[in-house]
Design brief:
Blueprint: E1 19-20, H1 21-31, E2 36-39, H2 46-54, E3 60-62, H3 67-81, E4 85-89, H4 93-96, H5 99-107, E5 112-118, H6 134-138, E6 144-147, H7 154-166, E7 172-178, H8 179-183, E8 185-186, H9 209-221, E9 225-229, H10 231-235, H11 239-249, E10 253-255, E11 270-273, H12 280-288, E12 291-295, H13 301-304, E13 315-320, E14 334-337, H14 340-353, H15 362-374, H16 387-398, E15 403-406, H17 410-418, E16 427-428, H18 439-449, E17 455-460, H19 461-465, H20 470-477, E18 482-487, H21 492-501, H22 530-536, E19 541-544, H23 550-559, E20 564-569
Parallel strand pairs: 2-3, 2-4, 4-5, 5-7, 6-7, 9-10, 9-12, 10-11, 12-13, 13-14, 15-16, 15-17, 17-18, 18-20, 19-20
Antiparallel strand pairs: 1-8
Length: 592
């Protein structure tokens, strides 16, 4: 994947003064341009919270109601801004509660700096109260982990942490700091960017003109080219270059969900997103392509299905900033290590300089347009509120301009299918790890980052309940992130698999009382009452189960000046289609 390389300029050096380690951490955050931290206190991080309290005019500290909620919120902030999100927790269970978000950030290449308190240095390795080897525990799912044992290392480590998290392929970094290091006094020496070189401190690689000219020659000879792009285009801030490149040649464009919005989904060349539950037309176009230009994507199994039969007729170009992705999942013909923004921008320049001959793609464009016309995302109308219709209505009322976060499950796929994303960083979802409970905390972080934008978490009742406590954070911190729950009282995606592959045997997938399930016709037995839960947190909410009331209810949610919970009662028997069963091919896609 590609990435931004611009870093926050270091502030001018100030007169040296003695500080303790905790004050050095907070001063380092401020010097890195951090304006908000999501932090839950405990004994081993108490010193740093005291330091934050002294600098509250310089940096906002948001108290989540669970460390996982705080770390997901930091991810939401990072995904919307491109800056590193920052979270903090105490040692032991506080730190381990960050693990899911760290793994999530690693999978989705999200820049995240996680600061954790640790027991006194003399107790490390002795099973002290609330001790875990968080440094060792996180190594498989971080770009880098630090255990800081010398207070004089803190200024350098903190600057390195942000540099590592945000350059090259973004990702999470952990800084674990024993309590005695936080308490120790020293006179810090503040480093500059040049003082902290490391393996990715140089600018990202740039493809040679020779390689890019070869790509253009391949395009000249292609009859059925497709662009397949992922989150690397978002990280590189290369949306403008991608759009210009595709338009100048007329190449159809398909994205992963990580890339959604970097090419406008309402554009005539857009194939929206493809893969297991992606568009039929996108899947068919990639499957029948003769040239596949892969930009900042990793050939994930949810995209490829049976990887040996993925894009079988295509010559594949793979441009990515991370060389380790080349030939990892799919053997390609032309692996190119490069920053995506440079590669696209330079190819546009080379078209003019080298006499590029635009291929005639009219027949291919027409074929893709016919597939889009004949096999759009669709659903059967009902007297009840179908989840797809709820998402479609939200898209209409927000004119596609909201930032949408999601949990994980059917609602996540419905959100991506029936909301049109025309801007990058507008769909914020856990996609590599698939972490339930992600949606609402991520919405809080997104809203903190962009208070000027409408932020709506489209969630399922299963996912939402996993971090329901963050409604308290929304209330107390006055964060007006909205939640629209598509409530079917079931773990919908698992139920769909049970229906398709397990003879509809319910293996603990009913969230309510299975002997008294509420339905859109009869709400008796509907449990829990999410509106009462919202009211218990001091927030407004509304339940809607009649189709005639849906539009008004969504508008009420959007008009609220504070956080709002909309509980939309839907049937549980809707399936997400299209669907390519796991490990299968496009030829085995269930379309309708």
């Amino acid at each position: 994947m590609s990435a931004k390389t611009d870093l926050h300029p270091a502030p001018a050096q100030t007169a040296a003064e003695e500080m303790n380690g905790a004050d050095i951490v907070v001063e380092s955050l401020i010097r890195e341009g951090v304006d908000v931290i999501f932090a839950y206190p405990g004994g081993a991080s108490l010193e740093m919270h005291q330091s934050l309290a002294k600098r509250k005019d310089d940096i906002r500290t948001i108290l989540p109601r669970h460390e996982q909620g705080g770390s997901f919120a930091a991810e939401g902030y990072a995904r919307v801004t491109g800056k590193a999100g920052v979270c903090m927790a105490t040692s032991g269970p506080g730190a381990t509660n960050l693990m899911t978000a760290i793994a999530d950030a690693f999978m989705d290449s999200t820049p995240l700096v996680c600061i954790t308190g640790q027991v006194y240095s003399k107790f490390i390795g002795k099973a002290a109260f609330q001790e875990t080897d968080f440094f060792g525990m996180t190594i498989p799912v971080v770009k880098h982990s630090y255990l800081v044992l010398d207070v004089n290392d803190l200024p350098r480590v903190m600057k390195e942490a942000f540099k590592i998290a945000t350059t090259g392929r973004p990702g999470p970094v952990v800084v674990d700091i024993p309590k005695d290091v936080q308490q120790t006094l020293t006179t810090p020496v503040w480093p500059t960017d040049a003082d902290v070189p490391y393996r990715e401190s140089k600018l990202p690689a740039k493809a040679s003109d020779r390689d890019l000219e070869n790509v253009l020659r391949l395009i000249e000879d292609a009859k059925r080219p497709v662009i397949y792009f992922g989150g690397g285009v978002v990280s590189a801030e290369a949306s403008k270059e991608l759009t210009e490149f595709a338009e100048r040649i007329g190449i159809p464009v398909a994205s992963t969900l990580m890339g959604a919005g970097s090419f406008p989904e309402t554009h005539e060349l857009s194939l929206k997103w493809f893969g297991m539950h992606g568009s039929a037309f996108g899947n068919w176009a990639v499957h029948q392509s003769d040239l596949l230009l892969t930009l900042g994507a990793r050939f994930d199994d949810r995209i490829t299905g049976d990887v040996s039969k993925f894009a079988p007729q295509a010559e594949i170009v793979h441009i990515d900033v991370d060389a380790s992705e080349h030939n990892k999942n799919k053997i390609v013909h032309h692996p190119i290590v490069s920053d995506i923004k440079h590669a696209l921008g330079r190819m546009i320049e080379l078209m003019d300089q080298k006499g590029f001959k635009k291929p005639n793609l009219e027949a291919w464009q027409q074929q893709c347009a016919e597939w889009k016309r004949d096999y759009p995302f669709s659903y059967n109308e009902s007297d009840h509120i179908i989840p797809q219709h709820a998402v479609q209505t939200l898209c209409e009322l927000t004119k596609g301009e909201a930032i949408i976060t999601t949990g994980v499950g059917q609602h996540q796929m419905f959100a991506a299918q029936f909301y049109d994303f025309n801007h990058p960083r507008s769909l914020i979802s856990s996609l590599g790890l698939g972490s339930m409970g992600y949606g609402y905390p991520a919405a809080l972080g997104a809203k903190v980052a962009r208070p000027d934008r409408q932020v709506v978490d489209i969630d399922g009742d299963g996912s939402f309940m996993m971090n329901v406590q963050e409604l308290a954070t929304a209330k107390i911190e006055k964060i007006a992130a909205k939640a629209m729950i598509l409530n079917n009282q079931h773990l919908g995606m698992v139920v769909q698999w049970e229906d398709r592959f397990y003879n509809s045997v319910r293996g603990n997938t009913i969230l309510g009382d299975e002997n008294n399930i509420g339905t859109p016709e009869n709400l008796t037995g509907l449990y829990p009452d999410y509106v009462k839960i919202a009211e218990g947190f001091g927030l407004p909410g509304r339940r809607v189960h009649k189709k005639s009331e849906l539009k008004d209810a969504i508008q009420e949610m959007l008009d609220s000046e504070e956080a709002f919970l909309l509980d939309v009662i839907t049937p549980y028997d809707e399936h997400v289609l299209p669907m390519i069963p796991a490990g299968k091919t496009v030829d085995q896609m269930i379309v309708r």
